[in-house]
Amino acid sequence: MEHLLLEKQLKAVADLNRIKLLACMKNGEVCVCDFVDVLGISQPAVSQHLRKLKEAGIVTERKVGTWKHYRLVEDQTPLMIGILQQIQPMGSCQCKTSCTN
Q: Record keywords: Transport included (predicted)?
């Protein structure tokens, strides 16, 4: 594994809020609006955490109207497979708004 990618991925998962984001996405795609509720922080702060996960190649995004939906990348590195196996899914990450329209 490329050392730069290894460093990015380790830094990306070395934060409790980003671990919670990954736990949410273990059940599938999640809208950014739901991460705000789960973490209890502002949408710009959530976006910064998601940007770091995306830059590390751990998550990908899909735009739906004005909202972005995030999910885990299907082809994870062996490092991330091992880390993700240790993270328990969080079940409270479901869209409660009309963001899917």
A: no
